[in-house]
Amino acid sequence: MEFWPILCLINNMRNLHPFVVGIYCGTTKPPSVQGYLTPFVEEIKPLLKNGIFINGIKCSLKVRCFICDTPARSFAKGVVNFNAYNRCTRCTVIGEYNHESHRMSFPRIDLNVIWLKHLNYD
Fold first, then answer.
1. pTM of this prediction?
2. pLDDT at residue 115, rounded to an integer
3. What is the DSSP letter of 29?
4. 72: phi > 0 → left, psi -120 to 50 → alpha, else beta; which?
5. Whether the Cβ atoms of residue 80 and residue 105 lie closer than 8 Å to each other
6. On the CB side of 116, how many CA atoms lie within 13 Å of its CA?
7. Which domain of life is it from (predicted)?
8. Which sequence spans correspond to the domains of the chain?
9. pLDDT in tens, 85-108
10. In a 10 Å sphere around its CB, with 0-12 CB exposed, 13-18 middle and 19+ buried, how is residue 38 labelled?
């Protein structure tokens, strides 16, 4: 059985801990990122637009960031996992697999030109 939670943390309330706002449960990972995230997105859209009332006070919401472990980030971004030949979304290096040690290595660090421009290193 696998559980893929979606957790929330209210950024400006330091005494609160993360809490569950959604969970996918199944014998494997979710079949698609859309199937995993769509219920959350559909529920949060009106909250982002209209805010939420707590104890009679209207509070606005915004998504600050998404934090994922490596498998969840690869799944959400639609890229290969961390140990694949073409792993990195920011470079063009193709990995080399060592059959003796069963490890993937990336012998060069050739950053993609688009990424360099993003960092203002062009």
1. 0.60
2. 47
3. S
4. alpha
5. no
6. 9
7. Eukaryota
8. 1-78, 79-121
9. 565 666 666 777 888 988 877 666
10. exposed
